[in-house]
Design brief:
Mean pLDDT: 87
Keywords: Endosome, Hydrolase, Lipid metabolism, Lysosome, Membrane, Mitochondrion, Signal-anchor, Transmembrane, Transmembrane helix
Organism: Channa argus (Northern snakehead)
Strand order of the largest sheet: 1-2-4-3-5-6-7-8
Number of strands: 8
Distance between the termini: 76 Å
Main location: membrane
Largest sheet: 8 strands, mixed
Number of helices: 13
Structural class: alpha/beta
Strand content: 5-15%
CATH topology of the largest domain: Rossmann fold
Low-confidence stretches: 1-43, 348-352
GO molecular function: monoacylglycerol lipase activity
Pfam family, one: Abhydrolase_1
């Protein structure tokens, strides 16, 4: 009997130890990713940002692909397949990347064929010292991408924001048969009647012979925060570590961004969109934040005056970063416009 009691006591102690060990193992298993997250957040925020975009693309069903043409490689993400409805090609702004559009893609129907490309020299697309990064040069590269990926087989809807809006507008002027409709979001390249805060910065830059820091190319977390304040009317609270991570991601590319900046704000490209507006024949939609401090909203009226039938959607309490500040509204407006154009042509009505 004593031996049996002793055996039960040992078994109970062993069971208790197994439970304790199980809890330790479980706690350790949970602690590893938590500690990795905290370490990444504090020590390698740039890596965390890249993982974040990867995870978001995966969640939204976007796949990353490369298109090669004559030694030049384009990086792009896509969702869906070409079908009865027009494909949508999205062009991001200066110093950004294809993932800029994730916030908008989230609110677009999953069955639509959506393509988001890294602009020439940006992110995963080839960067060369001899490439032409003027607006016209970028238009040529985007046309190369369109032909390489087969988007040109059927007219598509083209969307561009800021610098990408300038490129998209000039593309529509150069290749009218390739697109069925176009959306420009706060596009630069327009002589807007009213000056903005950014226009004042440009004047200071020109007077200093570009020796001052460019507001759109931040080199410190403080400058990154200033850039967000310039580009956004909505005030986002961004932790210092994330700001540092964004700086770390951008820092290696700043020399290139300076080169592109000088090109797109040079004499050849600065008003490229306005100079080609009269050649745009496709149905045109303009979306603009009323509180845009980079490219003044008065540019929308300039475009509407030149392009007959242009649809203008102005957003209250919104700055230059429309796709970040009003992604749901932006997606809805784009979809409404595409449906309206397709219905006018007697096309398929089912989009949602």
């Amino acid at each position: 009997m004593c031996a049996f009691v002793y055996f039960l006591g040992e078994a109970a102690m062993a069971a208790d130890l197994d439970v304790v060990n199980l809890l330790i193992i479980a706690g350790g298993t949970l602690a590893i990713p938590i500690l990795a997250f905290v370490a990444s957040f504090l020590l390698w925020p740039s890596a965390l940002i890249k993982v974040y975009y990867w995870y978001w693309r995966r969640t939204l069903g976007l796949q990353v692909r490369y298109a090669d043409c004559g030694g030049y490689r384009f990086c792009y993400s896509y969702r869906g397949k070409p079908g009865m409805r027009p494909s949508i090609l999205m062009l991001h702004g200066f110093s950004a990347h294809k993932d800029t559009w994730l916030t908008v893609v989230k609110y677009l129907p999953k069955h639509l064929h959506i393509v988001c490309v890294d602009m020439p020299g940006h992110e995963g697309t080839t960067r060369t010292n001899t490439d032409d990064y003027s607006i016209q040069g970028q238009v040529s590269r985007i046309h190369q991408f369109v032909e390489t990926t087969g988007l040109h087989r059927k007219p598509f809807h083209l969307v561009g924001t800021s610098m990408g809006g300038n490129v998209a507008g000039v593309y529509a002027a150069f290749y009218p048969a390739k697109i069925c409709s176009i959306t420009l979001i706060c596009p630069d390249g327009i002589r807007h009647p009213c000056e903005t805060k950014f226009d004042n910065h440009l004047q200071d830059l020109e007077h200093s012979n570009y020796s001052l820091n460019i507001p759109l190319i931040p080199t410190t977390p403080e400058e990154m925060e200033d850039m967000f304040r310039l580009c956004s009317h909505v005030r986002f609270k961004i932790p210092q570590q994330i700001l540092q991570g964004l700086v770390d991601v951008q820092q290696p590319h700043n020399t290139f961004y300076q080169e592109v900046f000088m090109e797109i704000f040079g004499e050849k490209s600065r008003y490229a969109l306005q100079e080609h507006l009269h050649l745009i024949t496709a149905p045109l939609q303009v979306i603009w934040g009323k509180q845009d401090q980079v490219v003044d909203v008065s540019g929308a009226a300039v475009i509407a005056e030149v392009v007959p039938g242009c649809r203008v959607d102005l957003l209250d309490n919104c700055g230059h970063s429309v796709v970040m500040e009003r992604p749901c509204r932006t997606a809805k407006l784009i979809l409404e416009f595409i449906i309206m154009q397709q219905d006018a042509k007697g096309g398929t009505k089912k989009y949602s």
